[in-house]
Write a structure and sequence with these properties.
With 157 residues, the chain is mainly alpha-helical. Helix content is 62%, strand content 3%.
Length: 157
């Protein structure tokens, strides 16, 4: 591990920062009833890069306040996508879904040679994102490699 790959706990710090970034995207999407790809679009690449860069600071703040700050800043309006109320089973937390996206993004970055911001854009704009966001299916808790393979091969086995 080189000096830029600091660890915080069991994983590299930037992996944890990505986890927070994805969890915040999920939190905002649920609060505003928008698809995750629409939240990513409204936040924009520069704002997401800032969230990722300052995740350790934002993580120490109240998640509700951070969420509201970015909803206002990005002018994210109320949508009509409500996968939370449509969920018929145990609802995964924002942190659960953040972890799924984090693993997918790290896999895309590794397998496709992309930097994290580009891999994030790819993940949230892929057909896999819609599958993850269907809480009535079992896809979001499938093995991380299976989710990555679905993205890479553009099909679900």
């Amino acid at each position: 591990m080189n000096s830029t790959e600091q660890t915080a706990g069991r994983e590299p710090k930037k992996d944890n920062d990505l986890f927070f970034t994805c969890s915040l995207i999920e939190f905002i999407a649920r609060r505003t009833k928008n698809r995750r790809c629409d939240v990513v679009e409204k936040l924009g690449k520069a704002r997401i890069a800032r969230i990722y860069e300052l995740a350790d600071v934002y993580h120490s703040d109240n998640i509700d306040d951070v969420c509201e700050e970015f909803i206002c800043e990005a002018e994210i309006t109320e949508g009509d996508f409500d996968n939370v109320s449509e969920c018929r089973y145990a609802l995964p937390s924002c942190w659960d879904i953040g972890k799924v996206y984090k693993r997918l993004i790290l896999g895309i970055s590794r397998e496709c040679g992309m930097d994290i911001p580009d891999a994030l854009q790819e993940a949230y704009h892929s057909f896999v994102s819609g599958k993850i966001d269907d809480y009535n299916s079992s896809f979001y808790y499938d093995a991380p490699q299976n989710i990555l393979n679905a993205y890479l091969y553009q099909e679900i086995e």
